[in-house]
Each structure stands twice: as C-alpha cells, then as structure tokens.
C-alpha cells in the first residue's frame, strides 16, 4: 500500500494512480491491485479522470492522464519534445498552420504549434482548449475515445458515429468551416508504441487556399507526420 498520510481518500487515490502506472487498467484490475471495493475504486478513478490525472483509452481502461505530465517539475513531455522536430517540417511542407492536440475530458488542448512566418494563418494559441464537437482534430480524438466520452459528446457534435467509423477506416479526418467560418483542416491520429491514440496532429488554414477537400491534398503528409511522432516517442 505504501506510506500513509493519514488522509484516507488521498491515500486511496494515490493507490489508484500507482495501479495505472504500469499500463492501462480496467476496474477489475484496479480492485485487484488496490484491494478497494469496486464502487470506491470506480468513484476515485472517475474523479481523477475529471481532473486530468487519469484518462481512458478506447477500451475504457484507465492510464495516467495529461495533468500528471504537466505537474512533473522539470520532466520533459516526450510528445511535445518530438513535436519540436516534426511539426516545423510539416509546416514547411504544407505552408500552413500546424497543431498538436491532446484530449482532456470533453475538450481538446493544443499542446504544440508551428506557424508560418508570413501570410494568412489559422493561429491556435498554445494551451488553447477547444471543444470536441467540431473540427478534424476533434473527430480524430473522438473516433478513438472511450464509449462514455463518445456518448457525452456526439449529441452536440456536428458529426455522427458513422463519420467517426470512417475516420477509423481511412486513418484521417477533415473539416471545412466546422470550428470556425472560413477555416479548413485535416488531422491524423498519433499513437504510442502500444497502438493507443494519444493525440491528433493537424494542418489548418483558410478554405480559399486549402480548398474544400483538404484531405485529398494533405492526408498523406499528416499520416507521415503522425508516424514520425510515434517513432520519436
């Protein structure tokens, strides 16, 4: 069990976090590792998930969440480190704005960017929190999200489960004027070495320049960039 702080709920929460550190865990795994009752383990895991300390994969299993990386003082984020090399090359190849998004609950957060030095840009600020209901990045992240997240987002989304299935089939998503009028984008999933989708890499820009079918133009480059990110993790 480890050391006790004398604060029961804190100690139990740390038990749940430790149980997820070795890999994705389901509720039965949490109970076996911590000795906690199912109701308690579930309540704590969901609470930690709300605060970004845990996140669920597309199988509904919990693993360490993005807030843990943010709180790790001085510890570099491997994905963001990889992005410093890959994103600028994608920007130079396309001439457009490039972003990297992570899912965070029912939102997505921009964790890295690369902007063209001139011309009309689709600037998404670093750290910007965007909805999961619109945009190609949202489609990619939701296509591989756990069922509970999909059920929570789809009623207010501009796309359907059938469209998400198409994203999974072809390996990329596109959008035209979904998130913002006049802006088009195309995105691809970034996976860890276990095959779990952990982010979405995107190219976005004005519809008048990118066109209304940006996937036909940039999908291959996005998939190549996503594979390069995975290789560098």
UniProtKB/TrEMBL annotation:
InterPro entries linked to this entry = GAF-like_dom_sf, HTH_MetabolicPath_Reg, Tscrpt_reg_IclR_C, Tscrpt_reg_IclR_N, WH-like_DNA-bd_sf, WH_DNA-bd_sf
- Which residue positions does the secretion signal occupy? none
Matching SMART domains, A to Z?
HTH_ICLR (SM00346)
Please identify the protein, giving its name as recorded. Helix-turn-helix domain-containing protein
Keywords of the record, alphabetical order, are: DNA-binding, Transcription, Transcription regulation
Note the coiled coil stretches, chain numbering: none
**A GO term, aspect molecular function:** DNA-binding transcription factor activity
Any matching Pfam family: HTH_IclR
Where would I find the IclR-ED domain in this sequence?
A: 67-233
Extract one GO BP annotation from the record.
Answer: negative regulation of DNA-templated transcription
Q: Which residues form the HTH iclR-type domain?
A: 7-66
Transmembrane regions: none
């Amino acid at each position: 069990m480890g050391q006790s702080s004398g604060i029961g709920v804190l100690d139990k929460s740390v038990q749940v976090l430790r149980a997820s550190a070795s890999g994705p865990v389901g509720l039965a795994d949490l109970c076996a590792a911590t000795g906690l009752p199912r109701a308690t383990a579930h309540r704590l895991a969901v609470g930690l998930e709300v605060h970004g300390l845990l996140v669920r994969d597309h199988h509904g299993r919990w693993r360490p969440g993005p807030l843990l990386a943010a709180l790790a003082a001085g510890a570099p984020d491997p994905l963001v480190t990889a992005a410093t090399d890959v994103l600028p090359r994608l920007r130079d190849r396309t001439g457009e704005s490039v972003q990297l998004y992570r899912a965070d609950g029912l939102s997505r957060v921009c964790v890295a960017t690369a902007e063209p030095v001139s011309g009309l840009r689709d600037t998404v600020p670093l750290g910007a929190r965007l909805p999961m209901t619109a945009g190609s990045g949202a489609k990619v992240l939701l296509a591989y999200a756990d069922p509970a997240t999909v059920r929570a987002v789809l009623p207010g989304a501009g796309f359907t489960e059938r469209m998400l299935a198409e994203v999974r089939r072809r390996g990329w998503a596109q959008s035209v004027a979904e998130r913002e009028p006049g802006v088009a984008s195309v995105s691809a999933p970034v996976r860890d070495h276990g095959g779990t989708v952990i982010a979405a890499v995107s190219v976005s820009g004005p519809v008048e320049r990118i066109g209304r079918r940006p996937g036909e133009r940039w999908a291959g480059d996005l998939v190549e960039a996503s594979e390069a990110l995975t290789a560098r993790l």
